[in-house]
């Protein structure tokens, strides 16, 4: 799974009567940012104050990320980060939903309403896979530190916070402490690499360098996302109105239709 796949899976919240996608107004922009994050962690791009620069042309196994990298390479002059995020297609969440369906992480029913608009009902979600993802998130949220191997999970955690998904991953009263930890992690000035007796000498220097690089990119993306969300929620504009993806049942409100049983977050019938 890419970071975007994981972000969407965390945003899919099982409920008593339906399965919802939470914070969908913000989500497509966070998905777009996750692609840049993955490319940055793979060493294919750098984000400067003025533009996104392609620094590696080696192929990437994931087809979508390869296409994004190709698009960035073909854009002249190189795009700025804010412009790239603002040009996020409205269909991006639906595209990622199809990816999860291909990976058998969700089952989806597609239909058209009387007006001819495409609608999508999420019928089931792979809860064991979602729980495993939450366990990885817990590790970085509760430790407050990272190693190079965990940089991906830290970046995911910070995107979860930026996209307004804290209550999706840590719901209710029992999630208050972890929501606070997540907010603290996202607001911290820097991330500290975990140090153990097994990490010595050059390995420790490499760990610090890789963590610092990943952190810098993550901070840049979160800052731009924050500005973008603010732009759409000030000046009399509603984020939900301007960014309505229009692809869900019930008029594209807070979630999708749902036709199978289950109860509560995390107790919905397993895949």
Describe the structure.
- The chain is mostly helical.
- Helices cover 52% and strands 11% of the residues.
- The protein contains 12 helices and 8 strands.
- It has helices at residues 3-11, 24-41, 63-74, 81-86, 92-102, 127-143, 151-162, 166-169, 176-187, 201-232, 239-242, 249-252, and strands at residues 12-14, 19-21, 45-47, 52-54, 106-112, 118-125, 145-146, 192-193.
- The strands form 4 sheets. The protein has a two-stranded antiparallel ribbon. The protein has a two-stranded antiparallel ribbon with strand order 3-4.
- A hairpin with a 4-residue loop joins β1 and β2.
- The longest helix has 32 residues, at 201-232.
- The radius of gyration is 19 Å and the shape is globular.
- 37% of the residues are buried.
How do the strands and helices of this protein lay out in sequence?
Blueprint: H1 3-11, E1 12-14, E2 19-21, H2 24-41, E3 45-47, E4 52-54, H3 63-74, H4 81-86, H5 92-102, E5 106-112, E6 118-125, H6 127-143, E7 145-146, H7 151-162, H8 166-169, H9 176-187, E8 192-193, H10 201-232, H11 239-242, H12 249-252
Parallel strand pairs: 7-8
Antiparallel strand pairs: 1-2, 3-4, 5-6
Helix pairs in contact: 1-2, 1-5, 1-7, 2-7, 2-10, 6-7, 7-9, 7-10
């Amino acid at each position: 799974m890419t970071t975007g796949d994981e972000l969407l899976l965390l945003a899919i919240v099982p409920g008593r009567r339906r399965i919802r996608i939470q914070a969908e107004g913000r989500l497509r922009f966070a998905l777009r940012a996750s692609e840049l994050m993955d490319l940055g962690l793979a060493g294919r791009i750098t984000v400067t104050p003025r533009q996104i620069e392609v620094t590696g042309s080696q192929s990437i196994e994931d087809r979508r990320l390869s296409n994004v990298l190709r698009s960035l390479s073909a854009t002249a002059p190189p795009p700025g980060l804010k412009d790239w995020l603002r040009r996020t297609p409205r269909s991006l969440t639906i595209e990622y939903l199809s990816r999860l369906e291909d990976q058998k992480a969700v089952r989806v029913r597609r239909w058209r309403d009387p007006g001819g608009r495409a609608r999508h009902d999420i019928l089931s979600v792979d809860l064991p896979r979602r729980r495993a993802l939450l366990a990885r998130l817990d590790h970085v949220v509760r430790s407050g530190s990272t190693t190079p191997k965990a940089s991906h999970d830290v970046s995911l955690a910070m995107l979860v916070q930026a996209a307004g998904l804290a209550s999706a991953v840590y719901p209710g009263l029992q999630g208050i402490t972890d929501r606070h930890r997540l907010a603290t992690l996202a607001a911290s000035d820097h991330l500290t690499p975990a140090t153990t007796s097994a990490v010595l000498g050059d390995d420790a220097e490499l760990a610090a360098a890789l963590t610092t690089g990943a952190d810098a990119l993550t901070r840049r993306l979160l800052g731009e996302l924050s500005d973008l969300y603010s732009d759409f929620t000030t000046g009399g504009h509603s984020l939900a109105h301007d960014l309505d993806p229009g692809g869900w049942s019930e008029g594209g409100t807070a979630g999708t239709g749902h036709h199978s049983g289950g109860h509560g977050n995390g107790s919905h019938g397993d895949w």
